[in-house]
Structures
1.
Amino acid sequence: MSSEQDHLKDTDTEARFEFKKEQNAAVKSDKGLTEEVIRMISEDKDEPDWMLERRLRALEQYQNMPMPTDWPGMPDLSGLDVEEIVPYIRPDVDKREGVDDWTELPDEIKDTFDKLGIPEAEKNALSGVGAQYESEVVYQNMQEQWEEKGVIFMNMDRAVQEHPELVKEHFMTTCVPPSDNKFAALHGAVWSGGSFVYVPEGVTVEMPVQAYFRMNSEGMGQFEHTLIIAEEGSEVHYIEGCSAPKYGTHNLHSGGVEVFVGEDAHVQYSTVQNWSKNTYNLNTKRAIVESGGTMEWVSGSMGSKATMLYPCSILKGRGATDTHITIAFAGEGQDIDTGAKVYHNAPETSSTIESKSISKDGGRTNYRGLVHIADGAENSSTAVECDALMFDNESTSDTMPYMEIEESKVDVAHEATVGKIGDEDIFYLQSRGLDDDDAKKMIVAGFIEPITEELPIEYAVELNRLIELEMEGSLG
Amino acid sequence: MSTQVHANLTEEQVREISGNLDEPDWLLETRLEALEALEALDMPDVIKTPGREWTNLHELDFESLVDPLNAAEDKDQVGPDEVDVLPWAEAVQEHEDLIQEHFGSIVDPQENYLTALSTALFSTGTVVYVPEGVDAEDVTIRTEQNSRSLFNYTLVVAEESSSVTILERQSTGAEQDEQYYSGIVEVVAGENSNVQYGSLQNLSEEAYNFALKRGDADTYATIDWIEVNLGTQLTKSGVSTELNGDSAETQIVGAFYGHNDQHFDLDAKVWHRAEHTTADLVTRGVTDDIARSVYEGVQDVGQDAWDTSSYQRENTLMLSDESEADASPKLIINNHDTEASHSATVGQIDREDLLYMTSRGIDERSATNMLVQGFFVPVLEEIAVDELRDDLEELIATRLRQRD
């Protein structure tokens, strides 16, 4: 065991995610959700009227919508009181649109991202980085070579000012309207920060762009909005990382992600989220895919108290393709309710969903999915595969896929398996000289390999470390 | 609650039904309580996704469908001598203790609106009592509905180390525009017993049907269900087993064939509640024309269900472009010492298979028919009751002949 602990110390994984910072806010809203709070946020951002109007309409929709309560087996949201959440905190930085050099950040913020390893990753593997601290993007940089090709990567607040036509057309209109669900409406009212990515026709951004979201204050809500527009024939890989330290009160993360995949374009959206275990993570993520386009969702859901997240692709044009690869890990007191939704609305569309989950120490994972094949989406195909691994008898794992098939010329397959770690496998590894813990870790690493294969190496390593960290303790 | 049938239902009607059957007071009380509960109960759960209810039971007009005092049927209840196969009125006299012990113990009369309605109003039924150690084959319960509504109740009690095979059929005699058939089946499988319960529903295609069958399997007991649905315009059917004893087993084999505008909402559920229990759920169905199928399969493994094996597969074949097939196979796992899997597929007839057969000189229509019949083979193979298997094969062939 001691070698493992040393290893974890060396990799510094725990320290990287659990540290807290003194709060240092320039502007902080009141708790709760009122028109005054919304007007204050909008004014602080110096927003155009149309955006304020959208916010106020979303607020009205939020107030008129009931909480979702009739989902079978949904996570317990009773500990979430939106009225106690601080929806907006602007950290004390000089430049509102974010600096483009890490050294210009206030020390305590710079220190945070240093510990998270973001500047290091930027140097090595990324085309651009945005970093959000509380409600504001504090760092934003895009390598020049991409800027020259017309690629835009900036924070969402700035995009409202600088690209109003693009934002007006795409922001919470056709992809994720506030009326979609209660938390989308909430997001529409109080959203702040996030990323705006625009890739012109035919441009391939070869290295991933990354945004990192950090929630540092107690009892706050983070509501970043991500809007990705990939024009015809373009290609981009966007990575999102999230973390927050743990406090006694609950945090709320309710992001909104909208992706427009143009004809024959290719977008990959990867997330490794490791919110602290008092965070409610209730997101809406959706892509609209035109003909011949490809949308790939890759996600690792590790942290949070409760997650409800079902990234969705609407395959709108002929021959559009969707791939979902997800992994969920639920430890003690965690309820990770996540899955995938795909609407096949055109002929010859295809989707594959591969979902893996691990639960231990009383954690619960649930795969909740929906595949809808509309009348007329002929020659479409979908394959769904869910595998669950459970470590002990306090943990639970459910799968709830729904398949709505309105078209006969289709090929639909769903498969799910649940199993414990095979005694024979462990015995085999032990007979080769590994101890019990190492054998289990090796089996888990093999189990999640389809996910780690899809991630850039830095992320794959991080995911592996996080899982090792999660497994630590229970296996001793 | 949008559907309100109790506006024209009265306590007197329930008293009259109970009185005609010469029932003891406790049973009348159970019925009256169910009648009273109607007001507060909702329809059985159906699958819902945002913006969509897959089966809308609220649309049914129970006020015009239910005619409690005018039930008419033609019934056969036969079985070998060593088993009691009794019509309800007779069973109430002969086996009151047995009925009092088990009635409503597996399916709660107030589980939902339709079970309560059935409990308050059922006027016909069968009790099958298999004494300890008796092996009984060929119990047949045939019900022909000749009235607007018919409420049927079946109780099967298999004592320790007994075995029984029951074949139930529902059909329509005198047809009316719209009819409602409701049937509740409770099966008590004692230690080491073996109950096989086959059901062939072939009611009129104008009829609505609510069916709920549930078994409780004790240690080493086996309950096997065969659930065939061919008739009605709308069926809401649930078949389930609670594996409450160690090493209990269950199999649920389902087959359906929907054509015209038929709608089948079928669920198969198993609750693993004890150690070393095994379940196997297999359903295959066809949808043609504008028919629609909804399938929900649930494998629920409880915290104490160590060493569980649980398998489920569901396949739907769509023969027309206008038909719809929805499926939701669910796994609920609370014990890690479990091996479980489920799979579901929806597809059409394989074009290569069809090409292969037509290239061998078989005309396309015959080839299609053969492939549909072949599709049902994995289910037919699981049906151990010869008579039911043969009938199902014949009914599938008949339905295929009706295709344009």
Note: The first helix of chain B runs from residue 11 to 20.
2.
Amino acid sequence: MSCGCDMIGETGLRFYGKMTASMSHEIKNALAIINENAGLLEDFTLMADRGMPIDPGRLKTLAEKVIKQVQRADGIVKTMNRFAHSIDESVKNVELDEVLDFVATLSGRLAFVRGVTLEVESGAIPVTIATRSFFLENLVWLCLDFAMDATGGGKTVGLRAEQTENGARLKLTQLQGLSERTTSAFPGEREIALLDALRAELAINERAAEIVLMLPRDIGQ
Amino acid sequence: MTEKVLLVDDEEDFIETLGERMRARGMDVSTTTSTKDALKKAEEGSFDAIVLDLMMPEMDGLEVLKILKEKRPELQIILLTGHATLEKGIEAMKLGAMDFVEKPANMDALTEKIRNAQAKKMILVEKQTEEKIKDIIQGKGW
């Protein structure tokens, strides 16, 4: 997609599109299960019309399956809604554990399809910074997208927030395959544009198998 | 004639229920949530149709489709997906998919496609058998 928009705008749109496509796919899956259960219920009533008794136990199981899928779809819609609202304010106070949890939830299906487990390691003390939350979510996703191909055999990405003297540090850990991945293309122009907008820095530590994002305590207006 | 169908989707609740409904309509249905297992099952059994989810863990549905069609060109594969896009649909058809269905699927439409798949497969198998016989006859020099 090339529309003459600035790099951050285009990157943001791509991020928004990728996440909403993934979530709408999940909603479709939930709807497909509800649809099949409703269809099965219809099949049972047709059979009952022909004199075959309906087992109440089966009906209970069908109802439970439908309730489970409605709850699943409701959870996805809540996440979509929260994602949409993350653009409301340009700068706001965010708790970094919550940001990491949220990006992990947003990326859940994409990670699952790639066979990767995301582990958010919550710290004892909450780390809060004033930042551009949508840009931060976008940057964490881009790092995660790169990191998911650098997990080596472990197939797990750890996500952790830590307080520093001047702000905070976000770590993507357990990246044993970092040395096998070409790191010259990362961070690319998209990541660099977001790093600039967030006044952040990125470091790749192959020995520690980590990607580290350094963020200021307050980005200012 | 009973249609032999393999359902491949990582959503277990989906294939379980869909499978039960298809069995109630007289089909012989096998299910799996793993693409690797699907490849194994397709190799071992002679299915009339394989209903395959496009977005699966382990392997992309299009990748599975390519492997299946290379190994068994007579297989009739219907791609079933939660997020159908025109590009993916065209790619799937180019790779030899018989059809492309978006979730939630309509049971009557899916059943119709499976019946068509069975008919197509029978024609292909008959053609393959004819060619084999022709090769044998020509090879023997009768």
Note: Residues 107-140 of chain B form the longest helix (34 residues).
